[in-house]
Amino acid sequence: MTTTYAPVEPPREEIDALSGSSVIEFGAPWCGICQAAQPALAAAMAGHPEFRHVKIEDGPGRRLGRSYRVKLWPTLVVLRDGQEVARVVRPAGQREIEDALGVLSGK
Is this model's pTM higher than 0.90 or not? Predict the structure, then answer.
């Protein structure tokens, strides 16, 4: 699991071209709700080391988050071969994240 937010967002085309299973996390390092979600996210991701995890620092004027219609942080976008298959907005706990990841792993 990635622990720091990328300050420079990749272009949407790069995310769309990802192969395999990926979790894109939109948030900000100063966001208290994002910080509170990290233990549950870490626990859920620990069971899926094969999944790519990308943390994107989001905010006003950031195109990638707007292209995914992100409005609240944290937002986890679960992708299979660059296509969204699940989404979790402000996860309440590990189970909610695991359910979304289960779409990729068939669990």
Answer: yes
